[in-house]
Design brief:
532 residues
Length: 532
């Protein structure tokens, strides 16, 4: 099959753009996709992360009672600001509260806590660290101020890398795909692997590059529009994408208490839409002011419906409807587009099967990222480069590999630390300290052990595999919820079984890679020193 390829000049431009952009983004891209792979199952691993939640039954929620309890028990909670109550689900039976803490003379603080749905007891800190830590890590939020911007521009340049990679391999793409072999020089193996796995995951990678850039750079992209067409008010343009921003509030609105109307409005929503939808969340703003409003986010009970989210809002004072965006009824097309982006990015459609498929494709993408780095290094392991240049290529490769591959055993440590660290106010920060410290330790060990790429990869696979098996062991010892017991919660058992499968697979690949032999790219002597 013959396909028209770019000319020599265009090919060279695309090749160098693809190579340079990939080299610069290697570590960031790997972290984003690897952490993102686990983030897909954030809700499924909640009860594994928080043993207290395993014995809670989901019950009917009275949003007014929840709001009144928050107002009474947290004096600094700004109940008139935006407040959200995330309803319990089968995987997360606790309530989740979002709001703001406001103290005079201090900047506003975002507030997120879990609440027991029966006792209304508020956890002193976010109970489950794993999902939140990996979720934030997948857009580099732990880097102060710049993390999200870095992740956004990485996503943007990833689009360039994906497209230029496609153009570089366009002519021989099909032949390379079917001609994949695992014998020959390292350069040939990495090139074939890079091409084949890159082609398999191409739509997935491009989708994530586009949706990631959308989420992280949306404000930057909309800034000119906000300044020119919306008088500098971002909420007006956000209203085009998110219905809740349509509602107008006056900062000097008079004080009034219509909060009791929430109960009647909630009953009305359940009566009109309860057969086809269940309530995901209730949002309020200006709860104790004259222009207060309540917003409902609904989700269809029909699993086959892709555009499944509904949005309703009512004015508290008179119960008048402010907007009504119901799937297959009144929902506007622009909101369906935004929801489609959300579903595609978070795999919130198609059930567990789609999440597992996304997880596998994310790992494929991590392999593509690593193989691209190794292609670059092997291509420069020849006489055209001085020993000093080759040592630099080796050090750069090993630094990136150590950082990327060290994340795998560190994630297993994070899961174990979640159960091993005593539950108190400092638990999330201490669990995160263990996670990032172990990641740093694995990174430094990998870099300074003076190993080659093969030994480093094998070491991380074996260590990560052993620690993966220890995840299920830690849960069984500390909570007595062994995965093979019939009364163990399904979410807990599936998490343990998944880690056992990951551990056995990693150990198997690590052992096999130690026995495999390939023909070296050249017979020339390796540079002395750190490139040994």
């Amino acid at each position: 099959m013959k396909l028209k390829a770019p000319g020599n000049r265009a090919y060279n431009i695309f090749f160098h753009l693809h190579t340079v952009s990939g080299l610069i983004m290697t570590a960031a891209l790997f972290v984003i996709f690897f952490a993102g792979a686990f983030t897909l199952f954030k809700s499924e691993i909640f009860m594994w992360s928080d043993p207290v939640a395993r014995n809670i039954a989901v019950k009917h929620i009275d949003p007014l009672a929840v709001l009144e309890h928050i107002a009474d028990s947290i004096p600094d909670f700004d109940i008139d600001d935006e407040t959200a109550i995330i309803y319990p689900t089968s995987s997360n039976p606790k309530l989740t509260i979002h709001g703001h803490i406001k103290r005079e003379g201090e900047p506003e603080i975002h507030y997120t806590r879990e609440m027991h749905p029966l006792t209304f007891e508020i956890d002193p800190a976010t109970a489950a660290t794993i999902g939140e830590t990996l979720y934030r890590l997948h857009f580099l939020d732990q880097i102060p101020l710049l993390g999200r911007w870095i992740a956004g521009f990485v996503s943007l340049f990833f689009i360039l890398s994906v497209i230029t990679g496609l153009l570089v391999h366009w002519k021989n793409m099909v032949n390379k795909f079917w001609g994949f072999v695992t014998k020959g020089s390292w350069k040939r193996i990495w090139t074939n692997s890079h091409t084949v796995f890159g082609l398999i995951g191409l739509p997935y990678q491009l989708m994530y590059a586009v949706t990631g850039a959308f989420y992280l750079l949306l404000f930057l992209a909309l800034m000119p529009m906000v300044l020119v067409f919306f008088e500098g008010d971002p909420e007006k343009v956000y209203g085009m994408a998110f219905p809740s921003y349509q509602v107008e509030y006056a900062e000097d609105a008079a004080v009034a208490d219509y909060s009791s109307h929430i109960t009647h409005i909630t009953e009305k929503v359940q009566k009109e839409y309860g057969e086809a939808f269940h309530i995901l969340a209730v949002q309020t703003r200006h709860l104790y002011k004259e222009d207060g409003a309540v917003n409902y986010i609904l989700q269809s009970k029909d699993p086959a419906l892709f555009s499944s989210f509904g949005h309703l809002a009512y004015r508290l004072s008179d119960g008048s409807e402010l907007y009504n965006e119901i799937p297959q009824s009144t929902k506007q097309f622009r909101y369906e587009i935004i929801e489609a982006i959300q579903h595609l990015h978070f795999a919130s459609f198609g059930g567990v099967f789609v999440k597992v498929l996304y997880f596998i494709l994310a790992l494929f993408t991590c392999f593509v990222i690593i193989s691209g780095l190794l292609i670059w290094k092997e291509a420069r392991n020849n006489k055209r480069y001085t020993d000093q240049q080759r040592r630099f290529h080796h050090r750069y490769t090993m630094a990136n590999l150590s950082l990327c591959l060290g994340l795998f055993p560190a994630v297993a440590v994070l899961f174990m630390a979640e159960l091993m660290v005593a539950g108190d106010f400092d638990e999330p920060s201490r669990t995160n300290l263990v996670f990032f410290s172990s990641w740093l330790l694995f990174t430094l060990l990998g870099y300074f052990l003076n190993a080659d790429e093969k030994r480093l990869t094998r070491m991380n696979l074996l260590v990560g595999g052993i620690l993966s098996l220890c995840v299920a062991l830690t849960n069984g010892i500390l909570t007595s919820d062994w995965f093979f017991l019939t009364d163990t919660n399904d979410y807990v058992a599936y998490t343990d079984i998944s880690w056992i499968m990951i551990g056995l697979l990693s150990i198997g690949v690590g052992i096999f890679s130690g026995k495999a032999k390939q023909i070296p790219i050249s017979q020339m002597k390796q540079p002395q020193g750190d490139c040994k």
